[in-house]
Amino acid sequence: MYIRRSHRILIGLAIALAVAAAVVAWRGPTVVNEAQDAASALLKKASNPPPPTAGEQRRSQARRTTDAHGKPSATPVQPRKCIQNGKTIYTDAPCPAGSEEQVVPENLSVVPGSAAR
């Protein structure tokens, strides 16, 4: 029995369509759930405000070191984050020579301690 070329092509397309439909029926809900999770993660990331710039953080630190009348407070603490030779140093003094000063997060808590050795 001989099947025409056009019929063989149509049968092949029908089989391919049936296989694709079976794969979608089998994996479809999982793919949709993964897409929803990815979309919600992107929405959550997009809705978070961007981190403050270095200038905004400096102004914020300046506000925290002044009292209500604009005078410097008794204990002006301006922590600095210094990176030197791959090591991070937090200090309230200027960064040592040869180190790079980084932006200090606004919510950094400073705990008094002993001097570094």
TrEMBL record:
Residues 56-70 have a biased composition (Basic and acidic residues). Residues 42-101 are annotated as: Disordered. This is DUF4124 domain-containing protein. It comes from Comamonas odontotermitis.
